[in-house]
Design a protein that fits this description.
The chain is an all-alpha fold and 328 residues long. 77% of the residues lie in helices and 2% in strands. It contains eleven helices and two strands.
């Protein structure tokens, strides 16, 4: 009975990978075309020309550091799951996933692309799911921590007409800090450390691993916000930019708009127009999109093609190529 169930599961996994391949060949080019079509490239060029070369170079360096940091979440995921892929294979996959996630959608970047690329490197479905869930938890537990600090300490300068108010946002920040601390305490003291959901096991990491998770992710949220901060006028404070980036990120997740097109601008204008002009805000956000989103996406497209080309050869070399994957 177990053998029949295992064969059925393998069959589903086999055809699932084929459908995923078809999905990428059709949907990714379509979504990239829609993204490019909605951009005013002349506007991007003018915005970038308005900044100094030193500022742009610094933003590029911060972007590189941020992407390396985010890609390292999956290296932590290796320690969490115990799989044997080397970091030199993990980092390019995680980088491509992050770039596609930010520009196209989380369904393509975080989920479908991870399953596609990791399966071609030999990881099974259960391990990929655990790596994915670990990366998602890492990202959002860092969000909760940095948001809790900024909101609870009233570091975000809100306009007077904003409905939620500074006190309401402070209470949200306190709750967020409590959630971050609860996660760390659970990783240290929880007696039950594993749960099974639809045949997938979710396990609490050790406290040292959880501390790495939360600190790396909080730093990464801070770095992405730093790019926008450097492109805005000096009158805007760094904690304010972090707070607005956190709010706009949630708005982008709720709306499911690729790259948060329009959402990011709307939130920044609503919360900053009492301090700086709309033109300055839009120029900064166009520069941010060009440096932090579009530039890595162009690199990620090349990385993805290379990974696809090398994946089968790497699996053959490591002895993991299945008979049905052999070229005809």
């Amino acid at each position: 009975m177990r053998e029949v169930s295992a064969n059925k599961k393998n069959l589903w996994w086999f055809w699932g990978k084929r459908l995923l391949t078809l999905f990428f060949f059709i949907m990714v080019p379509v979504m990239l075309f829609m993204l490019v079509k909605n951009l005013d490239w002349q506007e991007v060029k003018q915005a970038l020309q308005s900044f100094s070369a030193r500022t742009l170079l610094l933003c590029v360096m911060i972007t590189v550091l941020s992407y390396v940091l985010f890609s390292s979440y999956d290296v932590l995921g290796r320690a969490y799951t115990g799989h044997k892929l080397p970091a030199r294979q993990i980092l390019p996959v995680a980088f491509a996933c992050y770039a596609f996630n930010l520009n196209v959608s989380s369904w393509v970047g975080s989920i479908a692309l991870r399953y596609r690329l990791y399966s071609r490197l030999g990881l099974d479905l259960a391990t990929i799911t655990r790596v994915l869930s670990f990366s998602l938890v890492t990202n959002w537990v860092g969000y909760v921590l940095i948001g809790g600090i900024v909101f609870s300490l009233r570091l975000l300068d809100l306009p007077e007409h904003w409905k939620i108010g500074t006190t309401g946002l402070q209470l949200i920040g306190i709750v967020m800090l409590g959630a971050a601390m609860t996660y760390l305490l659970a990783c240290r003291f929880a007696k039950r450390r594993a749960w099974t959901f639809r045949e997938h096991e979710l396990t609490l990491p050790t406290l040292p691993l959880a501390l790495l998770q939360i600190s790396m992710a909080a730093l990464n949220w801070s770095l992405s916000s730093l790019v926008v901060f450097l492109l805005l006028p000096d009158s805007v404070t760094y904690p304010t930019v972090i707070g607005i980036m956190l709010i706009s990120s949630i708005a982008g997740v709720i709306t499911h708009i690729p790259a948060g097109l329009g959402v990011l601008e709307a939130v920044f204008i609503a919360l900053l127009q009492h301090e700086v002009s709309k033109g300055s805000i839009l120029a900064a956000l166009i520069g941010y999109r060009a440096i932090y989103l579009l530039l890595p996406l162009m690199v990620a497209c090349a990385v993805y093609l290379i990974l696809e080309k090398r994946a089968k050869a790497l699996r053959r070399h490591s002895g993991m190529l299945k008979p049905h994957d052999q070229p005809s």
